[in-house]
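pasting for ref
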Amino acid sequence: MTSPEHAVLVTYALSDDRYGEESDRKAIYALQGRLRNAIEAAGAGEFDGNLFGGGEVELYAYGPDASRLFAAMEPELRAFPARPAHVVLRFGEADDPTAAKQRIDL
């Protein structure tokens, strides 16, 4: 049996109520590269991608331990200036309604 896939789900506000300015998107893409590197260096999982829309961007990362994954990502997430922002750590599979979740405001 494999370990459940935990997640770190990050949400940042953008500069408008749609997809943000081009500068927002460029900054997010640069952040994604730093997150990939940090996660890989820690051997904590993988960065999976983003979803832009509705004035915010959601970033997705997955691994076997949400706490360890967040620890690898946290310095970059806290240094990124967009606010409001928050993270949800999900301790279990996406389709598990009993999976524990923890919200952390950045």
